[in-house]
Design brief:
This protein is α+β, with helices and mostly antiparallel strands. Helix content is 39%, strand content 23%. It folds into two domains: 151 residues, GAF domain (Beta-Lactamase, 2-Layer Sandwich); 155 residues, Alpha-Beta Plaits (2-Layer Sandwich). The longest helix has 20 residues. The C terminus is likely disordered.
Length: 336
């Protein structure tokens, strides 16, 4: 996977966080162990595994902090994820960025802060492992190195949550299992000079579904897309849930025009289907799709990046369409 830090792609960063499906989950022992170690090793009254969501920071694990989340715009960790190096604040009351911050002037009265960005394997900072003191202090190099080591453990644990081969909600491939299958198929495609295409698809305006009808109804929509897609692909293809409402489809022995046809069939079939909500309403959704064909010597990361760019174009072009290498092919382009 790509290890280059991506700091300018906020939408991609958010999608990387969403793929972990960790926000608003219950306490889990590995993360609780990490914050215990941080607190005891660095001798700080406060520390947290902080994940930066769209408009909030949410703590997967925390010590000495009385809240589970704070607004993003006042979060120290929002500043920590902007760079690849640790963020060190020795005295927040003297720091031009933080001296008037409400977390400094009021509870929890932050004075010193050390934050290590949590960088995913594909190069996005999704949060920070932070150590916080209510008194000014220095963080010597060995303490920074210790916290950085703990931050790597946090990322490893986030990745391990995705190891299961099957997605528990839809039954299709999990992200990790799909990537492993895709890596093998790409090696085979290069070895034997075979065609291979991938598609990335994202349910349009899915947040509105959750906000309007609730997460159980959103889960029905997610399961419906998986059901529809599995019915349209071949046995040798690989359909996986990449995270949240985003799915990926691997199509070995498939050139771009054939892959586009598959994506169009899935798009049509999904838009034609409805689910019934608990209140008896009918709910239908659409999906946007980006498709790319593997080129000579190309890696999985590269072809996914091109498919993802096509997906962004599909979203920006009105949604409910398929985009292949920058060319839109849709009989209907509507806001969904």
């Amino acid at each position: 996977m790509i290890m280059e830090l991506k700091t300018e792609d906020e939408e991609g960063r958010q999608r990387a966080l969403d793929r972990y499906e960790v926000l608003d989950t219950q306490e889990e022992k590995p993360f609780e162990t990490v914050v215990n170690l941080v607190q005891n090793t660095l001798n700080v009254p406060m520390c947290a595994v902080s994940l930066i969501d769209r408009d909030r920071q949410w703590f997967k694990a925390r010590r000495g902090l009385g809240v589970r989340e704070t607004p993003r715009d006042i979060s120290f960790c929002t500043h920590a994820i902007k760079h690849g190096e640790p963020l060190v604040v020795n005295d927040a009351t003297q720091h031009p960025t933080f001296k008037d911050n409400p977390l400094v002037t009021g509870d929890p009265h932050i004075r010193a802060y050390l934050g290590i960005p949590l960088m995913t394997p594909d190069g996005y900072n999704v949060g920070s492992l932070c150590a916080i003191d209510d008194k000014p202090r220095e963080f010597p190099a060995h303490e920074v190195n210790i916290l950085a080591s703990f931050a790597k453990i946090v990322i490893d644990q986030l990745e391990l949550r995705q190891i299961a081969a099957s997605d528990p909600l839809t039954g299709c491939l999990s992200r990790r299992a799909w990537v492993e299958k895709a890596e093998e198929e790409i090696k085979r495609a290069h070895r034997y000079d075979r065609a291979l295409s991938v598609a990335i698809m994202d349910i349009d305006r899915f947040k509105n579904v959750n906000d309007t009808y609730g997460h159980p109804e959103g889960d029905k929509v997610i399961k419906l897309l998986a059901e529809v897609a599995e019915a349209e692909i071949r046995d040798q293809d690989g359909f996986g849930r990449y995270g949240g409402e985003e799915f990926v489809c691997l199509m070995p022995e498939t050139a771009l025009n054939e892959a586009e046809s598959v994506a169009e069939r899935i798009r049509h079939a999904f838009s034609d289907r409805e689910t019934e909500t608990a209140k008896g309403d009918t709910l239908s959704c659409t999906v946007s799709v980006g498709v790319a064909e593997l080129t000579d010597f190309e890696t999985l990361d590269s072809v996914l990046t091109r498919a993802d760019a096509a997906l962004y174009e599909a979203k920006n072009g009105g949604r409910n369409c398929v985009v292949c290498n920058g060319t839109t092919n849709a009989d209907v382009k509507v806001e969904a």
